[in-house]
Amino acid sequence: MSFKFFMNHPFYYYYKTVLVPQYMEEHNIINEHKVPKIEKIIISRGIGKSNTLQVNNYVEESLKEFELISGQKPMLTRSKKHIAAFKVRKGMILGIYVTLRGYKMYAFLQKLIHLILPGIRQFQGLKLNNFDRQGNITFGIFSQSQIPELPYIPRQEIRGFHITLQTTARTPSQALTLCTLLGLPSNSI
């Protein structure tokens, strides 16, 4: 995928032409490359089933859902060793994840800001203490029914997932400022 194609995404164009100059003006930054940006978005889901038949069905459905959500094939996370206390065997599937970068990342970010988060009833917004020291944030979506690509199936099991926004911000306050400029709802209490 060429850089020119990547630049044609409307959300990336909005970020470069509107948000970067606004951030530079607010924080008295001269160099454009010091403005924090989102490097990648990781969407993940853990597999908490113990029955192998349930796990296989759950994994297949989750793979299909993640492929529809992200537009690319998800990866499986497997255990590296036996842990008897947790009933985990070596090679057992523990989770699924997708890493989004570039064009697909900005497409998902736009969908997250404008469709998914406004549809969540009890979403209070991002808080400063939700960010880690490096300026990354992870939050959960409790139901897959919030995703517009997934078909609505009544009586389907509710399966949530986690979204991690990894930024180049050096502090949590820089990351929170970046996220609020992008349009993510914030609750700075």
Protein described:
The chain contains five helices and five strands; from the N terminus they run H-H-E-H-E-E-H-E-E-H. With 189 residues, the protein is an alpha+beta fold. The protein has a domain at 3-46 and 97-123 and 134-182: Ribosomal protein L5 (50s Ribosomal Protein L5, Chain: A). The protein has a five-stranded antiparallel beta sheet. The radius of gyration is 18 Å and the shape is globular.
**Which CATH architecture of the domain at 3-46 and 97-123 and 134-182 would you pick?**
2-Layer Sandwich
- Give the helix/strand class: alpha+beta
In DSSP terms (H or I, runs of 4 or more residues), the helix count works out at 5
Tell me, what's the shape? globular
Secondary-structure element sequence? Answer: HHEHEEHEEH
Strand content: 15-25%
Within CATH, the superfamily of the domain at 3-46 and 97-123 and 134-182 carries the name Ribosomal protein L5
Indicate the CATH class of the domain at 3-46 and 97-123 and 134-182: Alpha Beta
Low-confidence stretches: none
Approximate helicity band: 25-40%
CATH topology of the domain at 3-46 and 97-123 and 134-182, what is it called? Answer: 50s Ribosomal Protein L5, Chain: A
**For the report, how would you describe the main beta sheet?**
5 strands, antiparallel
Radius of gyration from the alpha-carbon trace, in angstroms: 18 Å
Oligomer: single chain
Mean pLDDT: 80
Strand tally, please?
A: 5
In the sheet with the most strands, the strands line up as 2-3-1-5-4
Give the terminus-to-terminus CA distance: 41 Å
